[in-house]
Amino acid sequence: MQTLQVDVGHSRYPISIGPGLLTNRELLDARIRGRDLLIVTNTTVARLYLAKLTGSLASNSIASNSIASRRVAECILPDGEQHKTLQTAGRVFDALVAKKMNRDATVLALGGGVVGDIAGFAAACYQRGVGYVQIPTTLLAQVDSSVGGKTGVNHSGGKNLIGAFYQPLAVIADTDTLATLPDRELRAGLAEVIKYGCVWDPLLFDWLDNNMAKLLTRDVDALTYAIGRSCEIKATVVAKDEREQNLRAILNFGHTFAHAIEAATAYKTYLHGEAVGLGMLIAANLSHRLGLIDAAIKDRVRDILGKACLPTETPRVGAAKALELMHMDKKVLAGTVRLVLLEKLGRAIVTGDYSQAALDATLAECFA
Predict the structure, then answer these.
(1) What is d(CA 282, CA 176) in angstroms, rounded to the nearest whole number?
(2) Fewer CB within 10 A of the end CB, N or C, for the chain?
């Protein structure tokens, strides 16, 4: 098991990465506190891992409390990005109230990014804040969304417009859960790993370029390295800028375009990682058009996404519609869409100082 630390000053918590963690009773006992636990999951993950987790929790004791004193409740949500709404979050609140859970309760987010975001948001709001633990079961959640305390839900006008920065008590990433992950979900998770290589670590980018086949065939050592390195980078960036005032925004490379793609297609056509991959292509295209990077780097971004078997053709939603949706991005300041662009592999900038004509031409090329 690999253990990392996230330290944002007011909150410090561990990330545990490795196989068999859902049945590691000693680890669960150390990381999950409280007698009243609410496991939030979805219909897909519940069939696979809910009984395993509840069995492990029921077999534990907490401090001097008896096993009989612990209450473990469940809230099973529908699966899919289209359900990441206030209405679905309301189901978590309903479960907490129905079980008469108080401020000493702990919410466990067992699932992918959608489950983690909804459960974390509910934990941030319920009785003005209860503890929660991220137990991510998808590659995308293990390398990105479970770390850093971003929680929230989507709105019809844009992605993640309603939410809170709220750090978990711990992250427990059981790599065994990736064995049941559909190939498409695995590939979507790789997009976020590629992102880290683009904006922070060119050596990781090179490693991904050379080891993509191993990752796609679920080589355990390769996956463990990719998850660990991604979490190291995320933890480093979050420690420097928890609330995304400056540096952390680079981790949104491709996301402004991706969120527009997701909203334009009603969150039904693309997985989040697939949309991020397309967004990175568009951001690389614009970076090249602005003269920030040469064609070779733009082509390397496209090539590595192709190696990961991710989509490389953007939907024809129209340039005007894409721009309209981009203006709902959380990085917009004073009416200006700030974008994450590449200066070179491993270095990104966040800027609103770019040629509007270049952006218009890029959107016309990609979305028209």
Answers:
(1) 34
(2) C
Rounded Cα distance between 268 and 274, Å, is 12
Q: Which ranges in the chain belong to alpha helices (H)?
A: 25-31, 43-45, 51-58, 86-98, 113-125, 139-140, 183-199, 202-216, 220-240, 255-264, 272-289, 295-307, 319-326, 356-367
Active site annotation includes 150 = yes
Pairing of strands 170-174, 12-18: parallel
Give the pLDDT confidence of 154-196 residue by residue, as tens digits.
998 888 999 999 999 999 999 999 999 999 999 999 999 999 9
259 is a catalytic site residue: yes
- Classify residue 176 as exposed, middle or buried by CB count within 10 Å of its CB (0-12, 13-18, 19+): middle
* pTM as predicted: 0.93
Which one is catalytic: 31, 159, 259, 289?
Answer: 259
Degrees to nearest 5, angle at CA 172 with 169 and 178:
150
10 has catalytic annotation: no
Establish how many alpha carbons lie within 13 A of residue 121's alpha carbon, considering only the half-sphere containing its beta carbon: 26
Q: Catalytic: which of 234, 289, 307, 330?
A: 234
Give residue-wise pLDDT tens across range 235-273. Answer: 999 999 999 988 999 999 999 999 999 999 989 999 999
Q: Looking at 244, 300, 330, 338, which residue is catalytic? A: 244
- Candidates 229, 255, 289, 338; catalytic one: 255
Q: Reply yes or no on whether 159 is catalytic.
A: no
Q: Catalytic residue at 128?
A: yes
Q: Which residue has the tokens 């053709």?
A: 313
